[in-house]
Write a structure and sequence with these properties.
The protein is of the alpha+beta class and about 450 residues long. It is built from 17 helices and 10 strands. A hairpin with a 4-residue loop joins strand 4 and strand 5. Helix 6 crosses helix 9. The radius of gyration is 26 Å and the shape is globular.
Length: about 450
């Protein structure tokens, strides 16, 4: 499948649901190009023609929105479209052996799992309904009746392996299988803390051997929400302390040492401290705007402008290439910026209260980074704009030792779970807009972000 075939299916489904006069408002709401006039074609042709004019960079985002809107009578067809759309998202690979081992860890416990929600999950992700029954079915399919009897009521009848095999879980894509695991341990399907904890521990005993882990990323009604993360690509832990837009070294103090309760004492005029939990979806510019609006008690429109100025003001005046990099990010992505990961300047990743002469070789050098982005899945991306000071010593002469120290710092960051990307200052004196756009579009594609 490709986007042309995908959009053709959407157009066919929508033409049954929408009247001619509702097509234009629908396209406007989903940010799809305006359709041709009704007298110029059928409903399906109007919808298909509009979808064909979606910019290539916007196709995936539009397909995701349509997937939330369109009802498919043919569930096998819907699964094809889902698999195509989901295939563009980052996902840990789930080979057959890992699935079998996870199946052996699964058992149905009615005291933990909401039976109706679990059945709804099976219908949503797997082929448990007879296609012949379709929308006119008066009751459950033969397979669903069999599952009720051998899994829900007589739990000893089927092993986890046989249950997964009957579902088709061994043949589905990795994206579908991962969604299945995340849903099993979700508060909706498993509204029981003991059940969530047991399933997560059992599944993780297998997943960690394959480089993945179900990690708590949020809360829903007091219950933890888990996401399966690829531990080879991202940090294992969410960011707990975010100090950025710094004009000088921040001052911290422990209010309660036993609770690791750390307070940023520095004034907000010198240091910004984001004190909210970072979700698994990352930290967006919109998140930052709402936070700043509350911090400053300013209307959102005013907060947007003042936050931009505050961040820009933290960038050293001695680094014009860094400033150019920051400005071009906003110029290139324009109205899309609020939904994108925030580009945080002057971020402290290390901090030591003692001076370098006391620490000597153990001193944490290069503690402040030019930019940090917190991407989906707790991925941390460090961006550095290298001017002459990164590789030269006094008098402007090239310093091999200084260059080596920066390379060592990069290695340490990567081993700590950061992605590190460096830009030469000279790159940004040419066509800086193109350099910035090409890089960020590839970066966002890698992390499943749609500009």
């Amino acid at each position: 499948m490709d986007f042309e075939e995908c959009f053709a299916l959407f157009a066919r489904m929508l033409s049954v649901r929408l009247t001619h006069d509702r097509i234009a408002p629908f396209c406007d709401r989903l940010r799809i190009p305006s359709p041709i006039a009704p007298e110029m074609g059928t409903k399906e042709r109007r919808l298909r023609e509009s979808l064909c004019r979606v910019e290539p960079s916007q196709r995936l985002d539009v397909a995701r929105r349509l997937l939330d809107e369109v009802s498919f009578a043919d569930q096998a067809q819907r699964r094809r479209v889902e698999d195509f759309v989901w295939s563009h998202d980052p996902c840990i690979e789930m080979p057959l052996r890992s699935r079998r081992e996870i199946a052996e860890e699964f058992f149905f416990e009615p005291e933990w799992l909401d039976v109706d929600e679990f059945e709804s999950l099976l219908r949503r992700l797997w082929c448990v309904d007879d296609e012949s029954e379709g929308i006119f079915a008066s009751g459950p399919s033969d397979l669903l009746r069999t599952i009720r009897r051998h899994v829900f009521r007589n739990r000893e009848d089927w092993s986890g392996d046989y249950f997964f095999k009957k579902l088709g879980a061994y043949e589905g894509t990795s994206h579908r299988f991962v969604r299945f695991l995340e849903a099993i341990v979700s508060p909706v399907v498993c509204p029981n803390m003991l059940g969530q904890d047991t399933y997560v521990r059992r599944f993780n005993s297998v997943l960690e051997e394959w480089g993945g882990k179900l990690v708590e990323v949020d809360q829903d009604g007091g219950y933890p929400v888990f996401k399966l993360l690829d531990l080879g690509r991202v940090s294992r832990k969410p960011v707990r302390l975010l100090v950025f837009a710094t004009k000088k070294k921040p001052h911290f103090r422990f209010r309660r040492v036993a609770d690791i309760d750390l307070e940023v004492v520095s004034s907000s005029s010198d240091v910004l401290h984001y004190d909210r939990a970072i979700p698994a979806s990352g930290l967006s510019w919109r998140d930052l705007q709402f936070w700043w609006s509350e911090e400053t008690s300013a209307p959102l429109d005013q907060a947007k402008a003042s936050l931009y100025r505050r961040l820009q003001d933290s960038i050293p005046k001695t680094s014009p290439p860094q400033m150019e990099f920051f400005r071009q990010f906003f110029k290139v992505f324009g109205d899309s910026v609020p939904s994108l990961p925030a580009l945080l300047p002057e971020v402290w990743l290390h901090w030591d209260s003692r001076q370098q002469e006391h620490r000597r070789d153990e001193d944490l050098k290069y503690h402040r980074m030019d930019f940090l982005m917190l991407m989906p899945g707790f991925a941390r991306v460090v961006l550095e704009v290298d001017g002459q000071q990164h590789y030269s010593g006094g008098g402007g002469a090239v310093s091999v030792g200084k260059y080596a120290a920066h390379m060592r710092a990069d290695r340490d960051l990567r081993l700590d779970g950061y992605e590190v990307y460096r830009f030469g200052a000279k790159e940004l004196w040419g066509d800086s807009a193109k350099v910035v756009e090409v890089f960020f579009r590839r970066l966002f594609e890698k992390h499943g972000v749609s500009p």
